[in-house]
Structure formats: C-alpha cells, structure tokens
C-alpha cells in the first residue's frame, strides 16, 4: 500500500460520476448559491465536490486541489483555492495549534495547508485519529526490570537456539509492546505476530492477574482465527497463565457496541471501553472512520497493539490507515538501549533491518510514531525459498516478469500457474476448481451430516477459489453458479436441481450484511446442512466449538461461498487456493490484491491468468490520497 501528499489524477479510468456524487454536487452548489457565493466560484465548487465524492468512493480520504487544474487550465492552483474558499462551502483547516476536537466551521468541505480537499467528516476522522495515536505514542514508557528480562528469555528460548546471533524481532517486539502504550506490528502470514502477542500477554498477566485484555478483529472469521491461534500458541505457558488469557474475541463492531442509532457506538472517547489492553488483528482492514472510533474508545492509559500486514489490501472503505502508520519503523537511541537491556540483544543488532534507523542518536528528531512500529519479515509458515514465499516476494517487489518466468519452469509443488486468459474458462481451469472441491463433496457423501458437522466444515475450509471481481465470467457470481451446479450433481440432489431451489446439503453461504439480532456479520460463512428433524438449516461455527443453526429464510443478504473475492478472504487461511485473475488488466487488479490472494494459502496456490495480467498486477500499486502522516506531524506540534 502506498500513499503520498500529491498523486496527480485519481485514476485514468475512474468510474463515471455516481448518482451519490451528483446528488452531493447538486446539494452543495444550491447551498452556495443560496448564501450568495460568487457566480465564478460555483463551477469550481461543483468540480471539487464531485472529485472529493468520487475520491471517497475509490478509497481515498481526500482529493488534491492541484488535480482541478486540468479542468480549469486558465486558473492557477492558488486561484482555484481562493474560488473554493469564496464559495462559502469550504472551510480552511486551522493551524497546528488548534485543539484536535475544535473543528472548522461545519461546512461540507475542508481545505488544508497541503491543498488537500476533504469531506468535513473525513477531515475530522483523520485529525482525531492522528491526535489520538500521537498522544499514545508520547506516553512515558515503563522502566524495564530484571524479572521481565528473565521471563522474555524463557518465553523465547526456542527462538534463541534457532536464531543464534541474529536478533529475535519477536522478542524485541514483545519488549517494545510491554514498554509502551502503542505498538504496531506488521508482518506477513506466519511471521510470528501471534507468538509475540502470547508472550506479551504472559508478561503482562504475570505482573497483574486482573489485567483486562480484549481481542478484536474487523471480521468474525478473523476474530475467531485470532482466538484459535492464540490458544494453540499458549501451550507453552503455565496452566495458571493459560487460565488468565482472554476466552473470547470480538469483531470491532461488537466490541464497540452497536446501538439503534446508525453510525454510533456504545463505547467512545467519553465512555471508553473497560479494558487495560486491546489487541487488534488484521488491522489493515480498518478504514479511517472505524480506526478513529476504535482508538478513541480505548482508554488513554490502556495498551493498544495493532497487528497486520502493510502489504495486504487496504480497507474496502476510505483510507489505508495501517499501511500509513506502519510505514516508518524508527527506533530512537534511548529505546534501542532499553530494548537491548530487556532482550539481552546487542544494540547494534537491533538497528539491522531495513527501515529501522541505524544512525539514531539521543538528539535525533524522531518520527511521530517513533518507538512504536516493528516489521517482521521472516515467515515460519513458508520460507523465502519456498514456492509461496518466493512468489509473494516477487509480487511485492513488482517483479512480474520474473515471477512468470519462474512459475513457468518451477517444479515446486506448492505453486502452479494456469496461463488461461480466456473470457470463458478453459477446461483445465474448470477441472482444477472441481478437483479442488472433490474432497469436500466426497466428505458430504461419506459422513453423517447431522452428527459430524465438524468434519464437513474442516473439509470445506481446506480449499477455496478466490476471485478479483464479483461480475464477469471469471467473477464470484459465475463461479459460484458453476460450482453450485456441480455440487448438486455430485451429491445427487436432483430434487433441488430440478426445482431450482437454492438450498441443498453442503451449500456454503457468506453473509454480506450485518444482522445484530442474529449475531451474524458481514463475511461470516455457514454451510447448509440438515438438523435432527431433517430440515435444512444454515449452520455457523461458534467460537467455543459447536455450531449454531439459522433458518435460511431468516438470513440477511448472502451469497454462495464456493468462490469469494480476495477482499472477503482477508483474515482467512486455506491449505490450498485457486486464485482466478480477470481476463484483462483492471485498475482493481493490484499488487496488494495479488499478494493477499496468494498468501491466503498455507500449502499450495494455483494462479489462473494470462502473463500480461500477472505482470500488470505486480506493477499496479494501490495509491490512496491521504493526509494522515502530515496530520501526525501537526499533532506533534
């Protein structure tokens, strides 16, 4: 994920203005005319309002006034800015000394000192989030003690034997999180983020048995995986410490407490969560608005640990918060000295990774989030020399041609490439998908669907088809139709097929809209299976084992889930993945999407797409307009 102060045009193929954008433009221009705006400012205002609205729809937080110059070549950027301010609809952001919760006049648009143009509420979110993070980062760190050092040595003894003289970044990150109130850990799958969290919690709970710890993730699937991973890693702890670990995890929305008033939560800055520490996994999925509300709901003195992968897809909504705040992993000289003492690591070795400042001195000017960010680069799930690891590295480095050349000649069984770029899927591609689900369908035919639901879910979660798009012949909808028909034919459910009923044993479904009454959330996956009376229900896994039935007629908006978009797969892991890329290049197909799809697989991934599309995906980085980094600097002022 990438960002910068000015990016030029939003996108050469951005969509035609939507009804929502045009409605906003009409409202703002009419309002401006009613308050007596100069006539020559209205055209500029309309263009700016349209551009900002489209920017938000495309995931940006703001737009650039500079981009308006292409529409008004006779006017300078300064003149365009003056026109916007003269319209009476654009507030000029205050100087850095203005308290973060004292906002400009409530006008629909805000122009800041960097010529960034915002919808008012997004400027508000960005400024509040920056101030909150900066205040957390500035809190005085705790002094180290010998008990903590000895405990870290015990917890990471296996790492010490494996790493030898190399620095243990998991141990360093645990010490960093113990020391401060804000820690941001970025790493790919299998790099040890969960191991680090378990060690941190062991240290904190050993010191305070009554510590209130909460676990959260943006989706129910990610929250469940987080809790499961923590339990598996906790086996090395004493029974007493294991008993103190959190017993449940939450979606971020559930944690904050949904209220009948849309957009409002029970917990917020004036009514913070009753916790002492919060661990958030898959934080790259947090959009700007949710990140702001979450951080404000965490008490100022509580620890906040954000885990994610800076190279993954950003949130579906506006912002690339995690990528931005994890971009500058700088450690000050003072922090390095303390980490050295806590982890028994020579200070010089703590400075080795790229982007960790190696020349810090006590007088160095720190970045706004200095001593808060750590990158993990070594995967224990797949080594850099493994097929998946090597492909992921090539994608992240933008080496599409090299990736294709290697895929075409490699005999590594963990990766595969079907160079199928046809609009209609080639027979080999169709067969690969059918073969992928064959073990699942055979399980449906073999086990008791009432008493052995756990085996059905385990078989289904071993393989998944991931798509870049929802529509087209290579999109989610078409693939789900194909695989659904095959599943009905394979299982012999001719009655459902002939009646065109969407419900049959083994049909997987994904919830697409939150239903707080049913406690079903966007991204939850269930499977249609009979109950004891033979009635078809959709069963959803519970956190503490077991399954919960929901009648199909009561389900909120949903879709079949043999195939899902890469976006929806975030927070999930499958043994094997078939990644189906579009037949032609697209602005949606980015390096981040390609990387995210590939790294959902733990054992094997097969990529389907033409060489042109693969190379384009590696080269096409996601750019999102944002002023968060600049706002962090203001908050420090």
TrEMBL record:
<dbReference type="GO" id="GO:0005524">
    <property type="term" value="F:ATP binding"/>
</dbReference>
<dbReference type="GO" id="GO:0000724">
    <property type="term" value="P:double-strand break repair via homologous recombination"/>
</dbReference>
<dbReference type="InterPro" id="IPR050534">
    <property type="entry name" value="Coronavir_polyprotein_1ab"/>
</dbReference>
<keyword id="KW-0413">Isomerase</keyword>
<keyword id="KW-0347">Helicase</keyword>
<keyword id="KW-0238">DNA-binding</keyword>
<dbReference type="GO" id="GO:0016887">
    <property type="term" value="F:ATP hydrolysis activity"/>
</dbReference>
<dbReference type="GO" id="GO:0003677">
    <property type="term" value="F:DNA binding"/>
</dbReference>
<dbReference type="GO" id="GO:0017116">
    <property type="term" value="F:single-stranded DNA helicase activity"/>
</dbReference>
<keyword id="KW-0234">DNA repair</keyword>
<keyword id="KW-0269">Exonuclease</keyword>
<protein>
    <recommendedName>
        <fullName>RecBCD enzyme subunit RecD</fullName>
        <ecNumber>5.6.2.3</ecNumber>
    </recommendedName>
</protein>
<comment type="subunit">
    <text>Heterotrimer of RecB, RecC and RecD. All subunits contribute to DNA-binding.</text>
</comment>
<keyword id="KW-0378">Hydrolase</keyword>
<keyword id="KW-0227">DNA damage</keyword>
<dbReference type="GO" id="GO:0043139">
    <property type="term" value="F:5'-3' DNA helicase activity"/>
</dbReference>
<dbReference type="InterPro" id="IPR027785">
    <property type="entry name" value="UvrD-like_helicase_C"/>
</dbReference>
<feature type="domain" description="UvrD-like helicase C-terminal">
    <location>
        <begin position="561"/>
        <end position="608"/>
    </location>
</feature>
<comment type="function">
    <text>A helicase/nuclease that prepares dsDNA breaks (DSB) for recombinational DNA repair. Binds to DSBs and unwinds DNA via a highly rapid and processive ATP-dependent bidirectional helicase activity. Unwinds dsDNA until it encounters a Chi (crossover hotspot instigator) sequence from the 3' direction. Cuts ssDNA a few nucleotides 3' to the Chi site. The properties and activities of the enzyme are changed at Chi. The Chi-altered holoenzyme produces a long 3'-ssDNA overhang and facilitates RecA-binding to the ssDNA for homologous DNA recombination and repair.</text>
</comment>
<dbReference type="InterPro" id="IPR006344">
    <property type="entry name" value="RecD"/>
</dbReference>
<keyword id="KW-0540">Nuclease</keyword>
<dbReference type="Pfam" id="PF13245">
    <property type="entry name" value="AAA_19"/>
</dbReference>
<feature type="binding site">
    <location>
        <begin position="187"/>
        <end position="194"/>
    </location>
    <ligand>
        <name>ATP</name>
    </ligand>
</feature>
<dbReference type="GO" id="GO:0009338">
    <property type="term" value="C:exodeoxyribonuclease V complex"/>
</dbReference>
<dbReference type="Pfam" id="PF13538">
    <property type="entry name" value="UvrD_C_2"/>
</dbReference>
<keyword id="KW-0547">Nucleotide-binding</keyword>
<keyword id="KW-0067">ATP-binding</keyword>
<dbReference type="GO" id="GO:0008854">
    <property type="term" value="F:exodeoxyribonuclease V activity"/>
</dbReference>
<comment type="similarity">
    <text>Belongs to the RecD family.</text>
</comment>
<dbReference type="InterPro" id="IPR027417">
    <property type="entry name" value="P-loop_NTPase"/>
</dbReference>
């Amino acid at each position: 994920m990438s960002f910068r102060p000015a990016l030029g045009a939003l996108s050469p193929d951005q969509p035609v203005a939507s009804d929502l954008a045009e409605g906003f433009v009409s409202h703002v221009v009419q309002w401006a005319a009613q308050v007596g705006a100069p006539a020559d400012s209205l055209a500029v205002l309309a263009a700016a309002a349209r551009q900002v609205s489209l920017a938000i729809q495309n995931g940006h937080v703001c737009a650039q006034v500079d981009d308006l110059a292409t529409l008004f070549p006779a006017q300078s950027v300064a003149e365009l800015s003056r026109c916007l301010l003269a319209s009476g609809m654009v507030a000029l952001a205050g100087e850095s000394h203005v308290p973060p919760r004292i906002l400009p006049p409530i006008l629909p648009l805000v122009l800041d000192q960097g010529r960034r143009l915002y919808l008012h509420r997004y400027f508000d979110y960005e400024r509040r989030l920056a101030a909150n993070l900066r205040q957390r980062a500035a809190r005085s760190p705790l002094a180290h003690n010998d008990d903590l050092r000895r405990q870290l040595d015990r917890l990471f003894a296996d790492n010490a034997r494996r790493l030898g003289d190399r620095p243990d970044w998991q141990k360093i990150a645990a010490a960093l999180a113990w020391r401060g109130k804000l820690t941001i850990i970025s790493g790919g799958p299998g790099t040890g983020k969960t191991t680090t969290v378990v060690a941190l919690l062991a240290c904190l709970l050993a010191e305070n048995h009554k510590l209130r710890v909460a676990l959260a993730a943006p989706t129910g699937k990610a929250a469940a995986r987080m809790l499961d991973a923590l339990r598996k890693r906790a086996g090395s702890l004493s029974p007493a410490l294991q008993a103190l670990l959190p017993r449940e995890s939450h979606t971020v929305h559930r944690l904050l407490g949904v209220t009948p008033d849309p957009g409002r939560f029970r917990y917020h800055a004036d009514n913070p969560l009753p916790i002492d520490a919060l661990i958030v996994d898959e934080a790259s999925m947090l959009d700007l608005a949710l990140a702001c509300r979450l951080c404000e709901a965490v008490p100022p003195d509580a620890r906040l640990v954000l885990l994610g992968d800076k190279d993954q897809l950003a949130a579906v909504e506006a912002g690339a918060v995690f990528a931005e705040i994890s971009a500058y992993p700088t450690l000050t000289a003072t922090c390095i000295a303390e980490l050295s003492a806590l982890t028994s690591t020579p200070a010089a070795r703590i400075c080795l990774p790229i982007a960790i400042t190696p020349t810090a001195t006590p007088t160095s000017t720190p970045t706004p989030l200095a001593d808060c960010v750590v990158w993990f680069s070594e995967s224990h799930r797949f080594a850099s020399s493994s097929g998946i690891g090597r492909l992921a590295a090539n994608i992240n480095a933008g080496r599409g041609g090299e990736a294709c050349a290697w895929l075409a000649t490699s005999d590594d069984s963990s990766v595969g490439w079907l160079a199928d770029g046809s609009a209609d899927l080639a027979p080999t591609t169709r067969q690969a998908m059918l073969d992928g689900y064959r073990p699942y369908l055979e399980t449906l035919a073999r086990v008791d669907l009432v008493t052995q639901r756990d085996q059905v879910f385990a078989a289904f979660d071993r393989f998944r088809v991931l798509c870049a798009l929802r529509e087209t012949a290579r999109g989610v909808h078409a693939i789900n139709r194909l695989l659904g028909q095959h599943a009905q034919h394979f299982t012999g459910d001719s009655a459902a097929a002939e009646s065109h009923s969407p419900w049959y044993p083994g049909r997987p479904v994904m919830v697409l809209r939150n239903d707080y009454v049913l406690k079903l959330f966007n991204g939850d996956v269930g499977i249609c299976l009979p109950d004891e009376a033979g009635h078809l229900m959709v069963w959803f896994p519970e956190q503490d084992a077991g399954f919960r039935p929901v009648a199909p007629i009561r389900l909120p908006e949903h879709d079949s889930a043999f195939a899902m978009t890469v976006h929806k797969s975030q927070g999930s892991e499958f043994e094997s993945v078939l990644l189906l890329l579009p037949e032609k290049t697209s602005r949606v197909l980015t390096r981040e999407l390609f990387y995210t799809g590939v790294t959902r697989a733990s054992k094997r991934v097969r990529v389907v797409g033409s060489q042109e599309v693969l190379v384009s995906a590696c080269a096409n980085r996601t750019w999102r307009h944002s002023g968060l980094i600049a706002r962090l600097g203001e908050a420090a002022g």
